[in-house]
Amino acid sequence: MEAPFFSLMLLLLLVSSSPSAALLSAKGVNTEVQALIVIKNLLKDPHGLLKSWDQNSGDPCSWAMITCSPDFLVTGLEAPSQHLSGLLAPTIGNLTNLETVLLQNNNITGPIPTEIGRLANLKTVYLSRNKFYGEIPNSVGLRYLRLNNNILSGPFPSTSANLDLSYNNLSGPIQGSLATRYNVVGNPLICDANREQGCYGTAPMPMFH
Ligand SMILES: *[C@@H]1O[C@H](CO)[C@@H](O)[C@H](O)[C@H]1NC(C)=O
Ligand SMILES: *[C@@H]1O[C@H](CO)[C@@H](O)[C@H](O)[C@H]1NC(C)=O
Ligand SMILES: *[C@@H]1O[C@H](CO)[C@@H](O)[C@H](O)[C@H]1NC(C)=O
């Protein structure tokens, strides 16, 4: 009697201690772990901040700089002011439950991955004070987007978010923007160096929602 009972308890224990089992792919690998390991590998992390990001540990909710929902889905990547450099991997778009990305005050370069546009639950993205260049990808559901002090160029993005795009190299027009609030001070193609009027404010065409 004892041995089968013990095996059953062990099985229950194993099942109940694997909360991310729902995300196991056919090959038995957690897709969020895979995506985060690629992100780790493209970032340069001189202070070993991401050393707990271990492919074999299986549970990303126990890793530094990661926040999870109560049901163990990765909802936040939060590593501001950590001397990170290198690139932000496009596999960020595979973290389908992501709501918050805080990577401001680092030295990350390259383009902002267009894949973030896939993330339906993404609300807050702070990438201020890095070295991102290229265009701002579309991402419709955002509420807060701070990209100030980078080297971004291309058109003013169409999003209803609160936008801080100051100190980049964006071009206009702002007219018709959906932004709830915006700041584009310090973008020479839109705002002259000594003229701040029209460079920030609420949307020229107010949104009622
Ligand atoms: C990320 O998603 C893409 C597209 O669905 C897929 O092709 C790729 O294998 C995924 N990458 C990882 C590391 O999971
Ligand atoms: C970024 O890199 C520059 C040059 O390597 C360095 O001086 C600066 O302190 C770094 N900034 C951050 C926030 O890590
Ligand atoms: C700013 O962007 C324009 C075109 O969009 C480009 O010609 C110019 O070189 C850029 N300036 C800087 C400082 O990157």
Automatic annotation (TrEMBL):
<feature type="signal peptide">
    <location>
        <begin position="1"/>
        <end position="22"/>
    </location>
</feature>
<dbReference type="InterPro" id="IPR001611">
    <property type="entry name" value="Leu-rich_rpt"/>
</dbReference>
<keyword id="KW-0812">Transmembrane</keyword>
<dbReference type="GO" id="GO:0016301">
    <property type="term" value="F:kinase activity"/>
</dbReference>
<keyword id="KW-0433">Leucine-rich repeat</keyword>
<dbReference type="Pfam" id="PF00560">
    <property type="entry name" value="LRR_1"/>
</dbReference>
<dbReference type="Pfam" id="PF08263">
    <property type="entry name" value="LRRNT_2"/>
</dbReference>
<keyword id="KW-0732">Signal</keyword>
<dbReference type="InterPro" id="IPR013210">
    <property type="entry name" value="LRR_N_plant-typ"/>
</dbReference>
<dbReference type="InterPro" id="IPR032675">
    <property type="entry name" value="LRR_dom_sf"/>
</dbReference>
<keyword id="KW-0677">Repeat</keyword>
<keyword id="KW-0418">Kinase</keyword>
<keyword id="KW-0675">Receptor</keyword>
<keyword id="KW-1133">Transmembrane helix</keyword>
<protein>
    <submittedName>
        <fullName>Putative somatic embryogenesis receptor kinase 1</fullName>
    </submittedName>
</protein>
<keyword id="KW-0472">Membrane</keyword>
<keyword id="KW-0808">Transferase</keyword>
<dbReference type="GO" id="GO:0016020">
    <property type="term" value="C:membrane"/>
</dbReference>
<feature type="domain" description="Leucine-rich repeat-containing N-terminal plant-type">
    <location>
        <begin position="30"/>
        <end position="69"/>
    </location>
</feature>
